[in-house]
């Protein structure tokens, strides 16, 4: 047994630093451009977790001097109506970034909606044009959560080239784009998922292990190699026996931290980085559209 525990990758602190830098950049750009950057956030229905994230995003915008345009629709809003709103936002000169909060109610076709967003305003990097650029290794707007993971690794000067990165989870929001970003940085990438056989055998090979499965405390210490970098993308609200709710990740922090060299906490890890990268994308598109 080692007596040491992993070094914490402080996403909250880095997110604050990034937002401070963006605020300064906005102060310089705004007199030239004549308006602040604007982010439109579309939310459909009343998922309480989504409502919290949307509020966080709007608060962060306000702190930076950005304009946010919140569009909250009832759960039964039609595809056609949402597409119409997105088309108007595409044309709206005050709007630099458009984000459709996922997941959407099941009657809506989220892929078709994401296709409606103008690629240059696609703050979430989920339009096929931006995903295609990512596949080709070209520059473009990048999905916020995976971009946040890469930025955090960079900040702590964690070597990616040549390392074995194992991403657990294959979602379009995180797993797939993150696999491509790691590949671009010359990692050897494995994407594991719910149908992977002998998962622990594979995760134990990871120099960099990323948990993005959406299952609370799913990855335990015995699945992690000594000295690995453990990144937790999960955010799960669980209710304890005393009825208090707490946030936990997809990593079992207690058992992973003693084994890993670096670990991200939840909260305070990748969550705040996601918000910072969303604001970063919006400011990039603000700068580029002039
Ligand atoms: N189109 C789309 N893009 C997204 O980026 C997107 C989405 N849909 N749907 C939902 C998920 C979730 N998400 C989070 C953002 C910030 C925190 C965050 O700030 N978390 C804080 C704690 C927040 C709390 O206390 O609940 C932390 O980890 O420290 C968490 C989760 C973005 N998502």
From TrEMBL:
> What is the reaction catalyzed?
(6R)-5,10-methylene-5,6,7,8-tetrahydrofolate + NADP(+) = (6R)-5,10-methenyltetrahydrofolate + NADPH; (6R)-5,10-methenyltetrahydrofolate + H2O = (6R)-10-formyltetrahydrofolate + H(+)
Enzyme Commission number: 1.5.1.5, 3.5.4.9
Query: Which Gene3D superfamilies does this one have?
Result: Leucine Dehydrogenase, chain A, domain 1, NAD(P)-binding Rossmann-like Domain
The Gene Ontology terms for molecular function here are: methenyltetrahydrofolate cyclohydrolase activity; methylenetetrahydrofolate dehydrogenase (NADP+) activity
Alphabetically ordered keywords of this record: Amino-acid biosynthesis, Histidine biosynthesis, Hydrolase, Methionine biosynthesis, Multifunctional enzyme, NADP, One-carbon metabolism, Oxidoreductase, Purine biosynthesis
Pathway terms, separated by semicolons: One-carbon metabolism; tetrahydrofolate interconversion
| Domain (Tetrahydrofolate dehydrogenase/cyclohydrolase catalytic) ranges | 9-124
In terms of Pfam families, this protein maps to:
THF_DHG_CYH, THF_DHG_CYH_C
Please provide, in alphabetical order, the Gene Ontology terms of the cellular component aspect for this entry: cytosol
Q: Any idea which positions bind NADP(+)?
A: 169-171, 235
Q: Where is the Tetrahydrofolate dehydrogenase/cyclohydrolase NAD(P)-binding domain?
A: 143-288
Under InterPro entries, the record lists: Aminoacid_DH-like_N_sf, NAD(P)-bd_dom_sf, THF_DH/CycHdrlase, THF_DH/CycHdrlase_cat_dom, THF_DH/CycHdrlase_CS, THF_DH/CycHdrlase_NAD-bd_dom
The biological processes this protein is annotated with in GO are: L-histidine biosynthetic process; methionine biosynthetic process; purine nucleotide biosynthetic process; tetrahydrofolate interconversion
The protein's job, in short, is: Catalyzes the oxidation of 5,10-methylenetetrahydrofolate to 5,10-methenyltetrahydrofolate and then the hydrolysis of 5,10-methenyltetrahydrofolate to 10-formyltetrahydrofolate.
- Report quaternary structure and partners: Homodimer.
Check the record and name the NCBIfam families matching this protein: PRK14186.1
* UniProt cross-references to HAMAP family, sorted A to Z: THF_DHG_CYH
Protein family membership: Belongs to the tetrahydrofolate dehydrogenase/cyclohydrolase family.
Q: What is this protein called?
A: Bifunctional protein FolD
Identify the gene encoding this protein: folD
């Amino acid at each position: 047994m080692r007596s040491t525990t992993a070094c914490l990758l402080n996403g909250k602190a880095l997110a604050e630093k990034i937002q401070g830098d963006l605020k300064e950049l906005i102060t310089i750009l705004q007199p030239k451009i004549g308006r602040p950057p604007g982010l439109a956030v579309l939310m459909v229905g009343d998922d309480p977790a989504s409502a919290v994230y949307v509020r966080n995003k709007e608060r962060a915008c306000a702190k930076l001097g950005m304009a946010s345009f919140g569009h909250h629709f009832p759960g039964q809003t039609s595809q056609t109506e949402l597409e119409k709103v997105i088309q108007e936002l595409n044309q709206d000169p005050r709007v630099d970034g458009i984000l459709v909060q996922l997941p959407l109610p099941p009657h809506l076709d989220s892929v078709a909606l994401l296709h409606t967003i103008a690629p240059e305003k696609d703050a979430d990097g989920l339009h096929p044009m931006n995903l295609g650029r990512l596949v080709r290794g070209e520059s473009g707007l990048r999905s916020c959560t995976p971009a946040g993971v890469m930025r955090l690794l960079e900040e702590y000067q964690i070597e990616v080239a040549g390392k074995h990165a194992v991403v657990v989870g294959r979602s379009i929001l995180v797993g797939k784009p993150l696999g491509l970003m790691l590949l671009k940085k010359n990692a050897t990438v494995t994407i594991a998922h719910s149908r992977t056989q002998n998962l622990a055998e594979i995760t134990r090979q990871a120099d960099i292990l990323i948990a993005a499965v959406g299952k609370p405390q799913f990855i335990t210490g015995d699945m992690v190699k000594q000295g690995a970098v453990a990144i937790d993308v999960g955010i799960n609200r669980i209710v304890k026996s005393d009825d208090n709710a707490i946030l936990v990740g997809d990593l079992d922090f207690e058992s992973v931290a003693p084994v890993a060299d670096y670990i991200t906490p939840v909260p305070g890890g990748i969550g705040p980085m996601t918000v910072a990268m969303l604001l970063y994308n919006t400011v990039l598109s603000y700068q580029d559209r002039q």
